[in-house]
C-alpha cells in the first residue's frame, strides 16, 4: 500500500466516521451517514506533516509523517507540545528502512516528552507496505 492510498483511506475514515462525531454540519457528498448516535466525543484530530520541526533537545531537526493532536488546536499549530500519537509510513519493509523509521519515531517521542514534561506515555505506529507495528513509548523506552 502506498502512502497516497493510506491518505485516501484516512480521508475516507474521517469523512465517514470522525466528522460525524465532531458534530460538523457538512456531511460527505461521497459517502452516506453511518453513525447517528453522538454519544461519544471526538478528542483528537489527525494531521499530515510534510515539514521538519526544530528539535528541542538536539541541534538538528526531525520530521514525522502523521500525528494525532488535540481537536482544540488549529490545523497550522503542529508542535511537539500538541502531539498525542505519532506515526511513520513507508512502502519498503526492509530491515534498514524499518530501523530508520523506528528511530525517527523514537526521536519524535523523545521530543514530545521534552515539550510535555508531565506526559507518562505515548502511542506510535509504523506502517509498512502490508505490515503495521504498534508501539508504546514511555520515559524508559519503547515496547510493543
Q: What percent of residues are in strands?
A: 25-35%
Tell me the major beta sheet: 6 strands, mixed
Count of discrete domains: 2
| Average pLDDT taken over every residue | 77
Q: What share of residues is helical?
A: 25-40%
Protein name: Bgt-50027
Organism: Blumeria graminis f. sp. tritici
Domain Fungal-type protein kinase: 64-144
Pfam families: Pkinase_fungal (PF17667)
Please explain how this structure is put together:
28% of the residues lie in helices and 26% in strands. The protein contains two helices and eight strands, in the order H-E-E-E-E-E-H-E-E-E. A six-stranded mixed sheet has the order 1-4-5-6-7-8. A two-stranded antiparallel sheet has the order 2-3. Strand 7 and strand 8 (141-143) form a beta hairpin.
State the main characteristics.
6-stranded mixed beta sheet, alpha+beta, 144 residues, 8 strands, 28% helix, 2 helices
What is shown here, in short?
This protein has 144 residues and is α+β, with helices and mostly antiparallel strands. The protein contains two helices and eight strands, in the order αβββββαβββ. It is 28% helix and 26% strand.
List the SSEs and their pairings.
Elements (H helix, E strand, L loop, with lengths): L2 H20 L21 E5 L4 E2 L6 E2 L3 E5 L12 E7 L5 H21 L5 E7 L4 E7 L2 E3 L1
Parallel strand pairs: 5-6
Antiparallel strand pairs: 1-4, 2-3, 4-5, 6-7, 7-8
Amino acid at each position: 500500500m502506498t502512502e497516497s492510498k493510506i491518505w485516501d483511506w484516512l480521508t475516507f475514515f474521517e469523512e465517514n466516521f470522525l466528522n460525524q462525531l465532531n458534530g460538523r454540519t457538512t456531511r460527505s457528498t461521497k459517502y452516506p451517514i453511518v453513525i447517528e448516535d453522538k454519544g461519544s466525543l471526538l478528542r483528537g484530530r489527525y494531521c499530515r506533516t510534510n515539514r521538519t520541526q526544530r528539535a528541542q533537545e538536539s541541534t538538528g531537526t526531525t520530521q514525522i509523517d502523521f500525528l494525532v493532536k488535540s481537536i482544540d488546536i488549529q490545523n497550522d499549530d503542529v508542535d511537539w507540545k500538541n502531539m498525542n500519537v505519532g506515526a511513520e509510513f513507508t512502502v519498503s519493509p526492509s530491515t534498514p528502512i524499518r530501523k530508520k523509521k523506528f528511530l525517527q519515531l523514537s526521536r519524535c517521542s523523545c521530543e514530545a516528552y521534552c515539550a510535555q514534561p508531565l506526559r507518562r506515555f505515548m502511542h506510535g505506529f509504523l506502517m509498512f507496505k502490508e505490515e503495521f507495528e504498534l508501539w508504546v513509548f514511555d520515559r524508559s523506552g519503547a515496547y510493543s
